[in-house]
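To: structure subgroup
Subject: Chain for Friday's discussion

All,

I'm putting the inputs and outputs inline so they're searchable in the archive.
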Amino acid sequence: MKNYAIGGMWHVALWVKDFEACEHFYGALLGMKVEWRPDKDNVYLTHGTDNLALHRCAHQINESRLDHIGFMLPSLESVDYWYRYLVEQKIKIAATPRTHRDGARSFYCYDPDGNRVQLIYHPPLADQARSSANKNIIPAKRDA
C-alpha cells in the first residue's frame, strides 16, 4: 500500500496591500529567497523547504480567517535573538517571547500588511529546523 500521509505544510499564500514592504520583511529581514517572480504583482519566496506566495491585492480585503503563519527556529536561544533583531528593525511585536507548556518557545510579530507571524522553536521539529537554518542566511550576530 502506498503512503499517503501528509508531509507537513509547505506553502502559504497571502494577499498583501503593501507588496514591496511585505517582500522586504520576508526577504531581507527573515532571509527568504525569491524562488519565482512571474510578474510585478506576484512573488514566491522560500527558505529551501517551504514556499510563501505574496500576491499584490488591488481589491478590498475582507476579514481574513488566517490566525498566523509560523517560522521554525533551531533553538531556544534563537527565539530571543530573532526577537531582539526584529525589535531593532522596528517591526511591530504582537507578543513577547514565552516558553510554552510543551517546551516550545515563541513570539509573534506583524508583517507590514498586518499578518501575524510566529517565530517558534518547537522541540519535535528542532532537528529539521536546524538543518533548514544551516542553509539560510541569519542576520549578523550582535552583542546580546
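Points worth raising on Friday:
The first helix runs from residue 19 to 29.
The chain has a mean pLDDT of 84.

D.
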